[in-house]
Each structure stands twice: as structure tokens, then as C-alpha cells.
Amino acid sequence: MNNQQIESNNQKPPTDVASGAVLGVTVGDGKYTVQQDASGRLTALRYGEPWRDCCGDGLIYQLAAELQDAREALQRIASYPIHSEPTGAAMDMQEIAAALVTPNEKS
């Protein structure tokens, strides 16, 4: 999610995604982050610390961008207001979407 979309959803960005990042995806229970700044520089973080320069790596960019888009779409589904009497299917869809955008917690 970019920072404007996060703010519009009243969510805080992950602490390891730099402010002003136009792309920021964190995976692996917070272990890895791919982010792109406004100048286009693509970097990877490991545990929030600089790890790899990914500039020019189209695969990493495309995977991160598609994952970010999918998470944003799921967030919209999870927070979409149901205006009529909610059906089981609509509620199931929202619960599934919410579970997919919520990071897994290890027990």
C-alpha cells in the first residue's frame, strides 16, 4: 500500500517501510521488505536493515508490485460496507479477505 492509501484506510505503514516509499511490501512475518522510493530506487531490507540493492531487478519489482496491488484489493473487499442484509457469502468473502491482509501471527 502506498502511504496515501494507508492513511485513507486509517492504517499505519509497517515500521520498516520508509516514509515516502511508493512501493513497500513486507513478507516472511516481517523479515523481508522490498521498497521503492520516489526516485525509483528498489531496495530490499532484512529485519528492517538495508540488505540488497535490487535496482534493475524486474522480477522482484513485478512480484512486489503485484503483491501490493493484491493486498490493496483485499483490503478494499474486507472493508467494503454491506448495504443490504448481509448474506453468508458476502460475510465469508469479507472474512477471507480480512484474513489474507492480516499478517499471520505465530503461536
**Structural class designation:** alpha+beta
- Poorly predicted regions are 1-15
Strand order in space, largest sheet: 1-2-3-4
Shape: elongated
Q: Describe the main β-sheet briefly.
A: 4 strands, antiparallel
Strand portion, in percent?
A: 15-25%
Helix share, percent? 25-40%
Q: Count the DSSP helices.
A: 3
Separation, N- and C-terminal Cα atoms:
26 Å
- Average residue pLDDT: 78
Specify Rg, calculated over alpha carbons.
15 Å
Secondary-structure element pattern, one letter each: HEEEEHH
Total count of strands: 4
Structure characterization notes:
It is built from three helices and four strands; from the N terminus they run H-E-E-E-E-H-H. The chain is an alpha+beta fold. It has a four-stranded antiparallel sheet, covered by helices on one side. Helix 2 (about 60-80) runs antiparallel to helix 3. The longest helix is centred in the middle third of the chain and has 22 residues, at about 60-80. It is elongated. The relative contact order is 0.13.
